[in-house]
Amino acid sequence: MKCVLRIFFAAVATLLLVGCGNECDRCGDAYAYAYDSVVRHNSIYHWRTTFALDSAERAFIENHNIDRIYIRMFDVALEQNYETASPEIVPIATTRFVDTIPTNCEVVPVAYITIDALRAMQGEEAQYAHLIVERMKAMCSYNNCGRIKELQLDCDWTQTTRESYATLCSVVKDSLHKEDIALSITVRLHQLQEDPPPANRAVLMLYNTGALKVFETHNSILDIDDVKPYIKPMKYPIPLSYAYPFFGWGVKFKYEEFVAIVSAQDSIHSPEEHIRIERATYSEIAAVKEFVEGNLGKPQGGNILYHLDNTQLKNYTNNEIDKILTY
Amino acid sequence: MKSIKYLLISLLTLSIPCHTRACWGSWYAPGEYYMYRVYDRNASLDGGSSNLDLKSQNCVEWQKLTSHTIPLSDIYQVVYDMTLEEYEVMHNNPEQDYENKFAQWITKHDRSILDFLLLAKTNEYIRFRINSRWYYPSMKIGARMTLDEVAEQALAVTDKRLRNRYLLQAVRALFTLGRYKECIEIWENEVLGLPDGNLMKRHIRDYIAGALHHVGSPTSVEYFAEIGDVQSVLYCSGKEDVFLYPVEALALVCQYAPNSNYIPKALYEMVHQIEMKIESNYYTHFHYSYEEYELYDLCLAMGQNPKTENQAMWYYTAAYLSTLIDEVHQASKLLDKAEVARSTPFIDESIAVLRMYVDAKRLPYNAAYENKLYKQLQWLDKMIVNNITDEVRTEVASGYKLYSFESFYYWNDMLRRILLAEVCPRMIQAGKSVRALQLANMADNYIYDVVGYKTESFREKDKDGNDTIVIKDITIDEYRYSKDDFNFIDYSNHFFETIDSLGVDIAIAYLDNVEHSTQPFDKYLNARGYTNRDYLYDIVGTQCLRQMRYGEAVKYLGRVSTQYVNHSNIYICYEPFAAAPKETDYIEEFKYDFAREMYSLEQSIQLTTEPNRKAQMMLKFALGLRNSFNWCWGLTQYYRGSCYWGAVCDKRDWENDHYTQAAIARANKMVDEACKMTTDDEVAASIHYELCNFKTIARQYSNTKIGQLVRGSCDNLDDYHAMSYVSKPFRRYY
């Protein structure tokens, strides 16, 4: 009986995969272009508000053949206008460029869109799509980021905001297409089973997988047990890269209630307090990598480290870093 | 428990005093008109064109430069609503005709203005883009010029008419470019010498404060203080993280710019906040706290500050703050200082009003005070007449604010506040009720005389014979004598309520004063009140009826002209001497007829000795007396019910009024006496029949003709005891 069921499920899965393949075939030239132009890179995220690299960080880039940096340019957020007292969608925390971009590194500008801003731009997605693109391109141009081949949007969209985000991505993608720039999007684990918004590529974020504020959580940055439920054997509709966490922190609780994220070196001041030290170890990252690649295939755009900060990266050996970057 | 909570919350809510808004709009007690006045709230702060905001003032300036035939709305549309693209189209198509007269003018008659506006619009467009939070250097702006070019071109134009406007554009562009020193040079060389009211100078000054700060000039803080930019003052003083109460912020501004135009507005807002706080603490005694004392101390300090140009404003404010907590003697002392301090004509006027108010609260009401009040009223009277505007005239003629006594004209508000809320009550307490009536009359009615007409709607037939509404201006006398209209003015104001409640002797004394006084103050006041004799005779006559003084009622009601009869909003529709409500036809002179009849009966009762005849007359008199306070109440009153409309909300409950009680007692006594007095059973039966005492007839007078009728017609006598129409106080006597 078990055998019959296995055959039945295998048949259904095959049919679904075939159906999916047909669907992708119908997507037309845009996807064909995207697939053709995907080149694997060793990549890293820069997620700070000042682009200033110390010598160790520059050496890290060189030593590990990092040839692409995803730089967060600004967040798109909802803020109160101090003159009109009404909320407005504005760029905040714009990255200040103090240093030049390392030579031979391609820059992928990233804009993080808060969920409040996404909700507020409903019906006006096209207007904000143009503002976001125009500003990211201006920042790249002004700061000599070189030729831009890819631009990334990062947003923790959900079912209720999916349509609005898809509209935004669609306008961004169309405007970039004319300039031969690909749009990539971030994909969180809970978004993996959904159809992706219109984009050429995607990056699967394999970090922040657990419930940060829950006292019982073992490791909210990465826990393979948190990853497994979301990942099934499948072929994602657009080329997928994987981003792995190379950072750690402390999560402070008081009376088992979440207080704040603190540095891993922080200490408690009373017996009621507790700091959960979290860091994804190499073995954990490697296990997740093996599991993900086993189910979703090798990364089509390469692997990405999160994120460029020597105080964090120094916790890993060169060999460990290279093994994760290997595709 | 829930309902108790609800009840408590409801009671708390009810305890908050508020201006009730019914269909008449806000209701104000005279004491609630706001008196404090340190700047013209209808004028710009810098003394520019009054009643206009900066954009409208700019349109007026453009109108002066072009043509007065161009509507301001056309100018506004071109200057503020048109986009840069539209300007470029207009600039590139000189042959195009426009319906907008300003657009037509600047394309056909004066293209130098169009050149300027195109540059200004380009400047604004670029600056808007750059100032957007989405802007990042190197972003495409989409304009045909750069800001440097805008500044260069603006400074190159020497056309005297437009020079100041170009300077503003240059400063705006240079400021955005961070070329602050050049901004300051323009200010010092070309702008500083312009009059303070100059619109362009006012605009440029705002940028100079910032420019001075950017170049590290210590004078920047004075400029920021001058324009009331407290946050920038704090920033320049290194106190940006310090929490300041508004009064402390004001003190900081005063420290750097003691004569800033921002100060009067800030003072007004602070004092107004205190007034509102007092209103919301209506039922609890209000005490000044830290902020109020700080403000008071600041006023005293600034009053003494030699750098203060308008010291009187500060003493005046301190005096006003004292009045808010009833420290009128202190207020008077501070006003003494204000009256001799450096001042402006505007503040002098405010001081004069406050002086009137403080005197009214403080001085003994003797001849000396009356003399002073006379002079003060003459001054206030002049202010009312001289400052009246078309808006005020229109509001008086056709608006509803006077009916509901909403605030709308400062000088008349102050007349009302001082006289009605302060002087009249104290005059009555001092035994000078006639004077109180004269003052109340002026407070209520003078503004109608000043305006002199009413705008009313009339229903008329058009040429096709259809009903149509026509709006017409009529004289105030025509309005008062019109048979078509309800008189909204004369039977709901404070004067009426006062004369209607002080008793007929005072009303007669007032009438006598109106008719015979030769004293200048009396004549002055009587000339400014509504002293139409028909109106006053009707009031006095009606009060005589109310007090059962029928002879005098005949005298006064007999003087009311036939043109005025029945113009006091009331009429009666029942026969005044019927035992039960019996509808009657319209009676034109119902008060006078009734007074005559009652007076005649009163005389006849005294003269008649035959008991049965006397009893019948007594019964009729008693019925008339009762009815005049019951279903024919229009004979003795002008309104019924304690929820009456009008300005004075505290209406009397006539049914429990002592005049009513006295009248009912007299009527009942007369009925009792009449019943006992009869010697003829037929007469006695007829009296009881009138009174519906069927049981008495059936038992005591069954052998009379009426007794036969009652016994033959009634199965249950109570069925015929028609009590329903008899008001409660009377029932026990039937």
Keywords, separated by commas or semicolons:
heterodimer, A: 327 residues, alpha/beta, TIM Barrel, eight-stranded parallel β-barrel, three-stranded antiparallel beta sheet, disordered N terminus, B: 734 residues, mainly alpha, two-stranded antiparallel ribbon, 36 helices
Protein model, in words:
- By secondary structure, chain A is of the alpha/beta class.
- In chain A, 35% of the residues lie in helices and 26% in strands.
- The model of chain A is unreliable at 1-36 (pLDDT under 50).
- Chain B has 734 residues and is mainly alpha-helical.
- In chain B, β1 (21-22) and β2 form a beta hairpin.
- In chain B, α9 packs antiparallel against α10 (199-214), α29 (550-557) runs antiparallel to α30 (590-607) and α30 (590-607) packs antiparallel against α31.
- Chain B is elongated.
- At the A-B interface, α5 of A face loops of B.
Write a brief structural summary.
The complex is a heterodimer of chains A (327) and B (734). With 327 residues, chain A is α/β, with parallel strands linked by helices. Helix content of chain A is 35%, strand content 26%.
List the SSEs and their pairings.
The complex is a heterodimer of chains A (327) and B (734).
Chain A lengths: L1 H24 L3 H9 L3 E6 L3 E2 L3 H9 L4 E13 L6 E6 L3 E2 L8 E8 L1 H6 L4 H18 L7 E6 L6 H16 L4 E6 L13 E5 L18 H4 L12 E6 L2 E7 L2 E6 L10 E7 L2 H15 L5 E5 L3 H4 L4 H8 L2
Parallel strand pairs in A: 1-3, 1-14, 2-5, 3-6, 6-7, 7-8, 8-9, 9-10, 10-14
Antiparallel strand pairs in A: 3-4, 11-12, 11-13
Chain B lengths: L1 H14 L5 E2 L2 E2 L27 H12 L6 H10 L2 H9 L8 H8 L2 H21 L15 H10 L6 H15 L2 H12 L7 H16 L5 H7 L3 H7 L9 H11 L5 H19 L9 H15 L6 H14 L3 H13 L4 H18 L4 H21 L2 H9 L2 H4 L5 H20 L3 H19 L1 E9 L5 E9 H6 L12 H6 L4 H13 L3 H8 L5 H14 L3 H8 L32 H18 L3 H18 L29 H20 L3 H10 L3 H7 L4 H9 L14 H4 L3
Antiparallel strand pairs in B: 1-2, 3-4
Helix pairs in contact in B: 2-3, 4-6, 5-6, 6-7, 6-8, 7-8, 8-9, 8-10, 9-10, 10-11, 11-12, 11-13, 13-14, 13-15, 14-16, 15-16, 16-17, 16-18, 17-18, 18-19, 18-22, 22-23, 23-26, 23-27, 26-28, 28-29, 29-30, 30-31, 31-32
